[in-house]
Amino acid sequence: MFSRTLLPLLVEELQNSPAVALLGPRQSGKTTLAFEIAKTIPGIYLDLESERDRAKLAQPELYLADHLDKLVILDEVHRVPGLFPVLRGLIDQARRDGKNAAQYLLLGSASLDLLHQSGETLAGRIAYLGLGPLQILETGADQGDALWLRGGFPDSLTAPVDARSLRWRQNFIRTYLERDIPQFGPRIAAETLRRFWTMLAHHQSGLLNVAQLARNLGVDAKTAQSYIDLLCDLLLVRRLPPWHANIGKRLVKSPKVYVRDSGLLHALLNIETRETLLSHPVVGASWEGFAIENLLACAPASAQAYFYRTSGGAEIDLLLVLPGDKLWAIEIKRSLTPKVERGFHAACSDLAPARRLVVYPGTDQYPVGNDVQAMPLHVLCEALQAYDTRPSEIAAPSQ
């Protein structure tokens, strides 16, 4: 059992909101976290993929009205989109009776946008939280290499051997393609979408060129764009937007694209062992995506993430806008002796960030010149996690 860093925030939201939606990919630990909540808050659990539990909601108002004194956990809530208007009425009824919090915990495998499409929104009545796969502060820095290779899905990470872990991820991908994805949109051939997803894996951390992907797949650009949107909605792919500001520079305007879980990335590329990964051309891009996902999981909820690139070669891998409009410029290097390139210094001259950082897979923290600090990934994750409690400029925590 891993301790999830989201747990205190989930408890806080339940204490202040009648409904909370916890969104994340399948098998990322949503149900386990919900059962942790149920240990402290009396509740009932309904799995809406179960025929038996769906039958209980044949007349949802009657059933749920009998449980207004409990926290009702509804798993895979997107399977019953007609439930949302009923929940709105029950929440309003409970408010009139003086109960304003901890009524419903909704678990879903899709993003906020997709959940909005599946039924009436509960505006003013619901809070949204995202739970991704495990990240380095939850597993411990000593498992960093295994987490990078196998990804953060608990069953994959804890598999007894690498071969078993890879097989789990391959089955996970197949299940998503053949069973889950058809629930969320028009029927898409599983093999076509697998090819598209694999193309994105080969293009990890590259600029998104939808027209080129469409040509390679033999579909039109609109169809390829819909595939990207679907994978992003399912929280499987990330589009990292470019920084945009009027600074007198010609800025790159295309987003960068990442397969969010490094384990799924490696499964799509059939990479089983660490040795195979270290000799594969995707190794640097894989570690960049792994670092970005961990950093964003630890950043304050209001943080905004970009990359920065100009036509002149100035570049920052990850640009975070933190509370107080503080800019942190982060370069990501898969090297034990990271060297900052000229493009990073040029980009920092353009933007004057509050902190200039290089993330690398080592264990020591040290300056590398020109106000740039080299930091291990877990140390920077700790600094970002502490940012909410210390909104002024903070020092990195001791190792």
Protein described:
This protein has 399 residues and is α/β, with parallel strands linked by helices. It folds into three domains: 7-130, P-loop containing nucleotide triphosphate hydrolases (Rossmann fold, 3-Layer(aba) Sandwich), CATH 3.40.50; 137-295, Arc Repressor Mutant, subunit A (Orthogonal Bundle), CATH 1.10.10; 299-399, 3-Layer(aba) Sandwich (Trna Endonuclease, Chain: A, domain 1), CATH 3.40.1350. Helices cover 42% and strands 17% of the residues. The protein has 18 helices and 13 strands. The protein has helices spanning 7-16, 30-38, 51-56, 60-65, 83-96, 112-117, 136-139, 144-150, 154-157, 162-180, 190-202, 210-217, 221-233, 262-268, 274-278, 283-298, 342-351, 377-386; strands spanning 19-23, 43-47, 71-75, 104-108, 126-130, 237-240, 256-259, 304-309, 315-322, 326-332, 355-360, 366-369, 372-376. The strands form three sheets. It has a six-stranded mixed sheet. A five-stranded parallel sheet has the order 2-3-4-1-5, covered by helices on one side. A two-stranded antiparallel ribbon has the order 6-7. Helix 8 crosses helix 14, helix 10 crosses helix 11 and helix 10 (162-180) crosses helix 14. The longest helix has 19 residues, at 162-180. It is globular. Mean pLDDT is 87; it is low at 389-399.
Which keywords apply here?
single chain, 399 residues, alpha/beta, Rossmann fold, Arc Repressor Mutant, subunit A, Trna Endonuclease, Chain: A, domain 1, 3 domains, five-stranded parallel beta sheet, 18 helices, 17% strand, globular, disordered C terminus
